[in-house]
Design goal:
The protein is an alpha/beta fold. Helix content is about 45%, strand content about 15%. It contains 17 helices and 14 strands.
Length: about 425
């Protein structure tokens, strides 16, 4: 049997569907982000300076001095690695401190850190559901892959409710009955469309029908709420959610995932989840950096305020130029292309011609026919860089003959936006 042929055919199929992914070799500059060095021909090749517009380090905490100092200090004090799993000498002081900070952030009794947000969802959902007798998992239809895998791993019965449709959720919960164990799993902020879940109503319905709630706040922790606790904190319902899952790799700029809940839930996951028990602990360097980011964002709102301003300005400028921005109430800026081949070409052209990196988003991350460029402005993107982005995208759209939005364009109002005259003129030029 020619085994290699199967792998060759699998990759060829991805390429024919324009779904083959190419990694950009990017060397981020911690002090000058969003700038980075791009090496198009691999290691050792001549680099080009580019600006990154699709980073998940939403608040650029990965380059914050307090975070860097904490990482360096932990490396010198504790070394590079954790030394084992939590059971085998891997429970070090930095991770104990991090879990205490995360529990406090969400107003919960306890928290548990994992090596990634994907793993925390896999372990959290599957373990909790397996422990509950005859558990029915009630899952939002657009939940992330990690949540889907957690549901599958549990082996429990599942029912989907239509995305963010609380009327349909209530139908499902009512039919299941108050006496059956139920776990409602959903996200607070969906990262591809940028829409926000009705968290308060979901919590109310869960309580009404005697269900536990599990919310993924991955794209919201650090970003929303007075202390960065996420959408549930902003909406005042953290105490009504049973399990809050988050990441350390986005708003907090480091690496890892976690769940926060009552102490007995956390103890059960700690004791029964194989993906936790048999995985080496996050190293002290990562835990210390994450802890510094969490502590900083509990008291500082400057990063969140600046971030929201730049995201709103980017959306407005793109819309004013007639570019097809998908409207939402979050910091996510989806620019719709709706074709896999053209989406890849648009991304390549932005990088080659304008030194702007935005990766193409295609199936299976989004449904076929809804391909897009997912733009994530940060607090460090300037008004001038936003104007340059708009001008570059207009050039790409015209070159590839992509459709512009023909709806009435809201004119830019310089005083309302609070931008300088030069930036305003550049944006107006791009919109004309």
């Amino acid at each position: 049997m020619k085994y290699n042929a199967f792998f060759d055919d699998a990759i060829a199929g991805l390429k024919s569907e324009q779904r083959y992914r190419v990694f950009a070799n990017l060397e981020r500059d911690a002090r000058r982000f969003p700038y980075a060095l791009w090496r198009p021909d691999g290691p050792g090749s001549e680099p080009r300076e580019v600006s990154i517009w699709c980073s998940n380090d939403y608040l650029t905490m990965g380059g914050h001095e307090r975070v860097i100092d904490a990482v360096v200090g932990a490396a010198r004090k504790h070394g590079a690695g954790a030394g084992g799993t939590r059971n085998i000498s891997g429970t070090h002081q930095p991770i104990v401190e991090l879990e205490a900070e995360l529990a406090d952030l969400h107003g919960k009794e306890s928290a548990l850190a994992f090596t990634s947000g994907w793993v925390s969802n896999l372990a959290g959902i599957s373990t909790i559901a397996q422990i509950l007798p005859n558990c029915l998992i009630v899952s939002d239809a657009l939940n992330h892959n990690s949540m889907i895998e957690g549901v599958r791993r549990s082996g429990c019965e599942k029912t989907l409710f239509r995305h963010n449709d609380t009327a349909h959720l209530e139908e499902v919960l009512r039919e299941a009955g108050n006496d059956r164990a139920k776990l409602v799993v959903f996200e607070s902020l969906y990262s591809m469309d940028g829409d926000i879940a009705p968290v308060a109503e979901i919590a109310r319905l869960a309580k009404k029908y005697n269900a536990l709630t599990y919310v993924d706040e991955v794209h919201a922790v650090g970003m929303y709420g007075p202390r960065g606790g996420g959408i549930c904190e902003r909406e005042g319902v953290m105490d009504q959610i049973d399990v809050i899952e988050g990441t350390l790799a986005k708003g907090f700029g480091t690496l890892g995932g976690y769940i926060a809940a009552n102490a007995n839930i956390i103890d059960a996951v700690r004791s029964f989840a194989p993906s936790f028990i048999f995985t080496t602990t996050l190293p002290p360097t990562v835990a210390a950096g994450a802890c510094a980011a969490v502590r900083h964002l509990k008291t500082s709102s400057a990063e969140r305020a600046r971030h929201q301003r730049q995201a709103a300005l980017t959306k407005h400028a793109l819309a004013a130029a007639g570019l097809p921005v998908l409207d939402n109430q979050s910091h996510i800026v989806p620019l719709m292309v709706n074709d896999a081949d053209l989406c890849k070409k648009a991304s390549d052209m932005l990088l080659d011609r304008h030194s702007i990196y935005i990766q193409p988003i295609n199936y299976p991350t989004v449904a076929k026919g809804t391909e897009r460029l997912r733009i994530t402005p940060t607090p460090r993107h300037t008004d001038e860089q936003i104007a340059e982005l708009v001008e570059a995208l207009v050039d790409v759209w015209k070159t590839l003959k992509l459709p512009f939005n023909t709806a009435e364009i809201v004119p830019l109002r310089r005083p309302a936006l609070g931008i300088d005259h030069c930036t305003y003129v550049e944006m107006k030029r791009a919109a004309e």
